[in-house]
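re: that chain from earlier
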Amino acid sequence: MGKGTISTDVRARYPQVWLSVSATTRAPRPGEVDGVHYLFVSPEKFDAMVESGEMLEWAIVHGRNRYGTPRGPVAEHLAAGIPTLLEIDLQGARQVRESMPDARFVFLAPPSFEELERRLVGRGTEDEAERERRLETARVELAAEREFDVTIVNDEVRRATDELVSFMGL
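^ sequence. v structure.
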């Protein structure tokens, strides 16, 4: 019940919000659709996108895979006045703040670190080493909470989604 869960709920209940589709070098998880959940690209393609300036932000996440937000679609939707949501990590948020200082930033916090750990174990999609990498990333991100404009505790999906969309002015 993390960023992806909230994004899915936004997509389902708030169709007026455009949710950017991140590019990633990781393999799809079961049920993920290329172009819907992510743009699944090769490391070479990702590097080419970074080199050509096509990425608004990008990062190596959990020490292994690269994720990034293609710049063009975000700019197009914002120019058209469409509410736009980016599902990004701390590194990405810092990059976006540099290039789009008027953007608003939401920190989606777990109810507790123990609950975050329980969610990762319960998901069953990562091995123990991957879970440890993700928990270490979470420790770093939790320490940066004050860099964000608002914190929303992700204790109940519908409530957290509604709070997020309200913060967006909808």
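Residues 53 and 160 are 33 Å apart (CA to CA).
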